[in-house]
Amino acid sequence: MFDALDALLLARAQFAFTVAFHFIFPSLSIGLASYLAVLNGLWLRTRDRSYFELFQFWVRIFALIFAMGVVSGITMSYQFGTNWSVFSDRAGPVIGPLMAYEVLTAFFLEAGFLGIMLFGRERVGERLHMFACAMVAFGTALSATWILSVNSWMQTPAGYELAANGQFLPTDWVAIIFNPSFPYRLAHTLTAAYLTTAFMVGGVGAWHLLRGRGHSAPVRRMYSMALWMAALVAPLQVVIGDLHGLNTLEHQPVKVMAMEGHYQSYPEGAPLFFFGIPDSDAGQVRHAIAIPKLSSLILKHDLNAPLAGLDTIPPAEHPPVGIVFWSFRIMVGLGLAMALLGLWSLWVRYRGHLYEDRWLQRAAVALGPSGLVAVIAGWVTTEVGRQPWTIYGELTTAASVSPIAAPAVATSLLVFAVVYFLVFGAGVFYLIRLMAQGPERPEDPEGSAPEGPLRTAGTVPLAQFQTIARGSAG
Questions:
Q1: Which of 89, 105, 260, 267 sits between 20 and 30 A of 119, alpha carbons compared?
Q2: Euclidean distance between CA atoms 381 and 363, whole angstroms
Q3: Can you tell which superkingdom this protein's organism belongs to (predicted)?
């Protein structure tokens, strides 16, 4: 039944499916790791118990998200060998070392300190525990840095030469790592991860406030902190996104043409299409709602600046315009909604009704998952907009696929789909249950964390020793 299907299409669908599942977990773990480090630092500095309770609440959620991120990421590496062996062979001299650096530095750093972060507060002392929290946060950001360097190089390749056998050989590692799009993509992605976490935390806090837990100091605290993050970072993300778009226009103009729906060239200013139905066969956006010349103003800062269209590009090099057009609008629309909610929260906070404004709380709940949707939409815009290239301008996707039969790819895709929905569906269900429970009051940590470790090999634990000593004295 799979013989009539195309192996290339199935391989692309499989990678898109697995990476879409995977991408949401690192986006949350990057933000949550930093949030937990901040909470732990505030607890140590102020001894405000609400910070400790929030740390205990969110660290359980972080542990589950981190685990699902690791498991979902493993399957993607196998696909480089099974479905994309030609790409692996040709790009391996560049991609391989960068991926190895990610494992040897970032992943080992995260994994090495994760156990201390989760279970070591009473065993290693508060200072080392705080250091472990900071290292996990740093490790998650460092991991994103290496992965984005790899992906950015595929978008804007630099620092290489082509060998006689077609392999990409590195000539300048600095140019490879810090390729032209890397700084913008790194800033855009990390900011998106922090916003994704902020809106999830704010949505959980708002949900508990709506359920009558406004008396809870931890609930009020996480709601307030999340809205501060939204108010400060969401407008910043709009600016970073604009800079990233200008960089994309310089290095990947075809992607921007698809994002804007510009089938034709505009010699005297291009319109901005807010909505419409892209029709690639007719070469136009049907039923368009547009503002004349606004696209030229945004992209060139000049109302009358000319912008080239897809009519200047061979049809074989056109990306799927409809997908890119709409995924871009979903991302931008959600980003603007997040920025507006942040500004709304500032006004409500100024009026002194932050914890009483039910409409703001309902909006925060509704936008709780918006960051996850936005990062997936952004990823679709980036990756589909790059088509038909795997390495932009050098290696096509059709030339990157393994010589594998369609039934084999289809079978593995079905297996992935079933297993992912079962395993990760159960994981997400449990995550939602954890979030619904709200912060609990764990055992008071005051006085229970000595400066040194509680146990040394071959000795009696400190707490047990003190009990024995008191009994002996009695």
A1: 105
A2: 26
A3: Bacteria
pLDDT of residue 155: 93
Give the model confidence (pLDDT) of 417-453 as tens digits. Answer: 888 888 888 888 888 888 888 786 544 454 444 444 4
Q: What kind and span of H or E run contains 390?
A: strand 389-391
CA-CA distance, 39 to 197, in Å (whole number)? 14
- Residue-by-residue DSSP string for 404-430: --HHHHHHHHHHHHHHHHHHHHHHHHH
CB atoms within 10 A of CB 420: 18
Tokens linked to 151: 């992906």
Under 8 Å between Cβ of 278 and 322: yes
Model pLDDT, residue 22: 84
What's the full length of the chain, in residues? 474
DSSP string, 93-116: HHHHHHHHHIIIIIIHHHHHHHHH
- Cβ atoms within 10 Å, residue 422: 10
Residue reference for tokens 């096509």: 396
Tell me the mean pLDDT in the region 340-360.
Answer: 92
Do 54 and 217 touch, CB atoms closer than 8 A? Answer: no
Query: How large is the angle between the packed helices 321-351 and 217-251, nearest 10 degrees?
Result: 140
> CB of 189 within 8 A of CB of 144?
yes
∠ CA(443), CA(114), CA(119), 5° rounding?
25
Q: Encode pLDDT of 280-337 as tens digits.
A: 888 888 988 889 989 999 888 888 889 999 999 999 999 999 999 999 999 999 999 9
Print burial letters for 275-291: b (CB count within 10 Å at least 16), e (below 16): ebebeeeeeebeeeebe
Contact 273, 290 (CB under 8 A): yes
What single-letter DSSP state applies at residue 453? -
Hey, what amino acid is at 279? D
Backbone angles phi, psi at 7, to 5 degrees: -60, -40
* Angstrom distance (rounded) from CA 259 to CA 326: 8
Both tokens of 113, joined, read 């300190």
pLDDT of residue 413: 87
Token pair of 162 as six digits: 């082509």
Can you tell me the distance from the alpha carbon of 427 to that of 434, in angstroms, rounded to the nearest whole number? 11
Query: Which pLDDT does position 441 carry in this prediction?
Result: 55
Q: Are strands 272-279 and 284-291 parallel, antiparallel or unpaired?
A: antiparallel
Tell me, what's the pLDDT at 453?
Answer: 45
β-bridge pairing 395-396 and 389-391: antiparallel
Give the SS3 label for residue 283.
Answer: coil
Average confidence (pLDDT) over 52-79: 87
Instruction: State the pTM of this model.
Output: 0.86
Alpha-helix runs per DSSP H in 107-177: 108-119, 121-124, 126-155, 173-177
* Mean pLDDT for the chain overall: 87
Could you tell me what percentage of the chain is helix, strand and coil, using 3-state DSSP and rounding each to the nearest 5? 70, 5, 25
